[in-house]
């Protein structure tokens, strides 16, 4: 049994080591992908920087004769497309990619990776003031204020949240021009469209009205830290809900009002909730919850990670261990399909053959039985041996008091 436990522990260690190596390889692949994205973003930024420098030099040297590069490519027209236009084909010779953004706009790739690829630890650090990425104390509809950058101080409701990236989108704030790919442009739409850029969560703070207990005045307050408390699991929707609280003040911040979900009418083919919640199976101790064959299929009785074994399997393994221990007496002479503990016939010595015959004879005779005469003779010899042993030691045997001896008479009390 100890060997089985060691085998299971070794299998778990090997599986954990393989998982670590696999995760390390995946991290290396993700790291290479992040480096590639960073290089592409740097390339686009470099191209746009070179364009700005050339434009500044043209305006300085040409003056009013400098070309106007901010007019072409605004309409989805093949004739006036910026990529095919002579006036807007500016800086494309330095761009290795086929997707070239129009003048005054950025590519979709850059707007998606505006902050660069992040690691899970970086995302967790971004969401530190508002909980964790999985338990984020922000919701769509909350008002937030920007605390950094050129748009510092602007307040707007949250339009979208991406916890996996640690970013939010504010409605009407940080709008940028983006070059839309040709496959995504509808008829009559513009090639360059404005969308809200993503803002890191650590660059914003929640704005909520609170009442001052001293003055009784209610005003908007910037909340710099939030924590999740009072977790509850909804039995119907299987969703985890919690309450967000300002630590230190012990003030609960209510969630924004969400749109009510549509109410559906029950149809004849619908299953009622009372039927789904009805308990139809009550487990008992008299029979297993599933057949043993099904349990073996679910647990894989031949798995190395199994920790619960049947009595027959344990007895079989113990017998194999005992046979192997006995067979080790003969070293490598043991061959397959031979009796454990016995050398092959081709390698037996005459003495081993004699021992095997004697062992077979003793097994046939069985255990010896003693007759009454033998027992009497054994008792006589034991008595003689006892007397001679006491004489040699110079001591005598002290007879024990018989249990049938009468008790001494007790004296009567004086009159």
TrEMBL record:
Q: Keyword Ribosomal protein on this protein? A: yes
Q: Name one GO biological process term.
A: translation
What SUPFAM superfamilies has UniProt attached to this entry? Answer: Translation proteins SH3-like domain
Q: Which InterPro entries match?
A: Rib_uL2_dom2 (IPR014722), Ribosomal_uL24 (IPR003256), Ribosomal_uL24_KOW (IPR041988), Translation_prot_SH3-like_sf (IPR008991)
> Which residue ranges have biased composition labelled Low complexity?
399-409
One cellular-component annotation, GO: ribosome
What molecular function does GO assign, one term? Answer: RNA binding
Its keywords, alphabetically, are: Ribonucleoprotein, Ribosomal protein
As for family, the record states: Belongs to the universal ribosomal protein uL24 family.
Protein's UniProt name = Kow motif domain containing protein
Instruction: Tell me what organism the protein belongs to.
Output: Ophiostoma piceae (strain UAMH 11346)
